[in-house]
Design goal:
Layout: H1 21-28, H2 35-42, H3 49-60, E1 65-71, E2 74-85, E3 88-98, E4 106-112
Antiparallel strand pairs: 1-2, 2-3, 3-4
Amino acid sequence: MDWPPEIGAAMPRATDAWCHEEKWARWILAERGHGPEWLHVFGVGPEDWRQVWRAIRVAVKAVPVTEVRLSPDGVGCGVVVDLRIGPRRATVLSAWHYSHRGAAPRLVTAYPTPYTRAHGHT
């Protein structure tokens, strides 16, 4: 495995990506988190977290890392994907954390970019 992750390369161990389930209800799709953006762009809410998670997991396997941050707590990666959920499509920013070399990436957050609009059937 290439280490640390590099900008322009595939996200290491993307097929093993994981997240804490409560992250969806408490932040990513929550009203006090990025929920309003997800609702506006994709028409999804906290109850749709499994569908959103599946779409993100598939999408990150096929795109390069766009940002890398090294810290004493591990490595953070940014990945931008063109996400499709139902008939809607939009650009989504996602942040990932590797706790150590060889670790699978953990989703930290994800949200539709403020510069995009959902596209109709494409």
